[in-house]
Write a structure and sequence with these properties.
Blueprint (H helix, E strand, L loop, with lengths): L3 H25 L5 H26 L3 E5 L3 E3 L3 E12 L1 H5 L6 E8 L2 E9 L4 E6 L4 E3 L2 E2 L12 E5 L8 H11 L5 E3 L4 H9 L5 E5 L3 H13 L3 E3 L12 E5 L4 H9 L3
Parallel strand pairs: 1-3, 9-10, 9-11
Antiparallel strand pairs: 1-2, 3-4, 4-5, 5-6, 6-7, 7-8, 11-13, 12-13
Helix pairs in contact: 1-2, 5-6
Bound molecules: D-MYO-inositol-1-phosphate.
D-MYO-inositol-1-phosphate binds next to strand 3 and helix 3.
Family: Belongs to the inositol monophosphatase superfamily.
GO molecular function, one term: metal ion binding
Protein name: Inositol-1-monophosphatase
Length: 262
């Protein structure tokens, strides 16, 4: 049985997803001029965050909040906060690529305890609660069972514009691509993590990531049996700004490769 919090999160994600799908159709139909598309998408993004915030803060007014668009707002209960990316994969959305998602996590005492990622364009709803497994549309998820790097596919990402992390990621790619079946860069970190949980990817890493991109996905991967750590840094992974995860068999080698020259 989903908890009351999970029901609130699912409702918020579906409602925001419906609003985004409507806007996405407009982008796809090119009713939005190339010049105006950027503004249109930021409006769609802000509207989705507003919907989610109304639902979540309406139901739990005392929880804290951090959202990509509206930033951080402490709540009366300092131990709980919502971590929200209303539209992860903004650049894909802007280009009419149906690979973006709503990501909502609930953190309690610095640990993610509930997670929803909604890939509204494909109608795939990923959910996880601590100790309750990871699920997609009611189906239990498990990370892949692959053991060899050479037969495995990994995903990575580069923050918008590359920021300071591009040189490091290019080194990662030079090192890892010859050792694996491939590395993908699909442009939505929440879905990269959801796909690791679903066994579609065998692992994922990224340098220069925000808490709202990865919070929900961290719990999904853990609940599907995967390992998740910061590439470097101490404290909770969600705040580390970098992340590496994989199935338990491949995690040691992936993490060692990524950290070996870090
Ligand atoms: C971005 C995507 C992308 C990742 C970037 C994120 P946004 O989120 O998740 O895959 O590589 O680091 O910032 O900006 O589309 O919400």
């Amino acid at each position: 049985m989903p908890s009351a919090n999970m029901n609130v999160m699912i409702k918020a994600a579906r409602k925001a997803g419906r609003s985004l799908v409507k806007d996405f159709r407009e982008v796809e139909n090119l009713q939005v001029s190339v010049k105006g598309a950027g503004d249109f998408v930021s409006r769609a993004d802000r509207e989705a965050e507003k919907i989610i915030k109304e639902e979540l803060r309406g139901a739990r007014p005392n929880y804290g909040w951090i959202g990509e668009e509206t930033g951080e707002e402490p709540g009366e209960d300092p131990t709980r906060r919502w971590i929200v990316d209303p539209l992860d994969g903004t650049t894909n959305f802007l280009h009419g690529l149906p690979h973006w998602a709503v990501s909502i996590a609930l953190e309690h005492k610095s640990e993610i305890v509930a997670a929803v990622i909604f890939d509204a364009a494909k109608d795939e709803l990923y959910t996880a609660e601590k100790g309750g497994g990871a699920w997609m549309n009611g189906q239990r998820l498990r990370v892949s069972g692959r053991r060899q790097m050479i037969e495995s596919i990994f995903a990575t990402g580069v923050p918008f514009g590359g920021r300071n992390t591009l040189p490091a990621t290019l080194k990662d790619l030079a090192r890892l691509m010859p050792l694996t079946a491939g590395v993908r860069r699909f442009g939505a970190a929440s879905l990269d993590l959801a796909y690791v949980a679903a066994g579609r990817y065998d692992g994922y890493w990224e340098r220069g990531i925000h808490s709202w991109d990865v919070a929900a996905g961290i719990l999904l991967v853990k609940e599907a049996g995967g390992f998740v750590e910061a590439i470097r840094g101490e404290g909770p992974v969600v705040d580390a700004g970098n992340i590496v995860c994989a199935n338990p068999q491949l995690f040691p080698e992936l993490a060692t490769q990524i950290r070996s020259w870090d």
